[in-house]
């Protein structure tokens, strides 16, 4: 049985086909390389956009934080001149109001936005823009160590209050259940929201 030998033309045709396939493969490789470069470029652009977005979010967060502090200061400035009236309505005479009180003793410290004082009673007031449950708990901790850090109030009847522009109902109820006065907006005025039957906690 004889085997047919490829002719010269067959070999030329085969070489031509191999060349065409090689060229096609090369073209596909170049396309893949270009697509890879384009993909890498898009990834870099996406990464840049993510970083830019992250930077803007940080800027906005910082701005919101500063705004929150300014709103807290606004509430503090609004409550201070009204403290005499607000607490007198609850039977607490006010002789002195101290703003931004800092106490330090034995490595411990605390800050009170407003300290309302008479001869035997004092009320520590914390002012916030938007009151949260964590703010209530932090103020309770603050009040619990005030007398220890400022012994001159050791024999005083110490009470606590929270004042804010925004006070969710559940947070107000929680604060009141812990024996704190809650001072908030009512129309164009600030008022103590606790009912007439409210009995404040005493430290």
What does this structure look like?
The chain is an alpha/beta fold. It has a domain of 121 residues: Trna Endonuclease, Chain: A, domain 1, CATH 3.40.1350.10. Helices cover 53% and strands 25% of the residues. It is built from three helices and six strands; from the N terminus they run αβββαβαββ. Strands 1-2-3-4-5-6 form a six-stranded mixed beta sheet, with helices on both faces. A hairpin with a 2-residue loop joins strand 5 and strand 6. 19% of the residues are buried. The model has no long low-confidence stretch (mean pLDDT 84).
Describe the sheet with the most strands: 6 strands, mixed
* The CATH class of the domain at 72-192: Alpha Beta
Strand order of the largest sheet: 1-2-3-4-5-6
- Proportion of residues in extended strands: 15-25%
Total number of strands? 6
Query: H/E series, N to C?
Result: HEEEHEHEE
| Overall form | rod-shaped
CATH architectural arrangement of the domain at 72-192: 3-Layer(aba) Sandwich
Quote the CATH topology of the domain at 72-192: Trna Endonuclease, Chain: A, domain 1
Helix content: 40-55%
| Contiguous runs where pLDDT drops below 50 for at least 5 residues | none
Radius of gyration: 37 Å
**Structural class from helices and strands?**
alpha/beta
- The separation of the N and C termini measures 115 Å
Summarize the structure in short:
With 203 residues, the chain is α/β, with parallel strands linked by helices. It has a domain at 72-192: Trna Endonuclease, Chain: A, domain 1 (3-Layer(aba) Sandwich), CATH 3.40.1350.10. It has three helices and six strands.
């Amino acid at each position: 049985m004889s085997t047919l030998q490829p002719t010269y033309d067959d070999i030329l045709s085969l070489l031509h086909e191999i060349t065409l396939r090689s060229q096609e493969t090369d073209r596909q490789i170049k396309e893949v390389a270009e697509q890879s470069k384009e993909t890498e470029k898009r990834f870099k652009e996406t990464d840049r956009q993510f970083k830019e977005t992250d930077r803007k979010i940080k800027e906005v967060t910082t701005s919101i934080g500063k705004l929150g502090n300014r709103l807290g200061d606004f509430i503090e400035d609004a409550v201070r001149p009204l403290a005499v009236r607000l607490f007198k309505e609850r039977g607490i005479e006010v002789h002195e109001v101290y703003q931004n009180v800092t106490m330090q003793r034995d490595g411990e410290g605390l800050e009170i936005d407003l300290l309302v004082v008479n001869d035997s009673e004092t009320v520590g007031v914390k002012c916030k823009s938007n009151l949260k449950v964590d703010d209530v708990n932090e103020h309770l901790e603050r009040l619990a160590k005030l007398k220890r850090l400022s012994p001159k109030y050791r024999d005083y009847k110490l009470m606590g209050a929270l004042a804010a522009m925004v006070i969710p109902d559940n947070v107000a109820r929680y604060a009141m259940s812990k024996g704190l006065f809650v001072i908030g907006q009512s129309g164009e005025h600030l008022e103590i929201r606790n009912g007439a039957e409210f009995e404040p906690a005493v430290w």
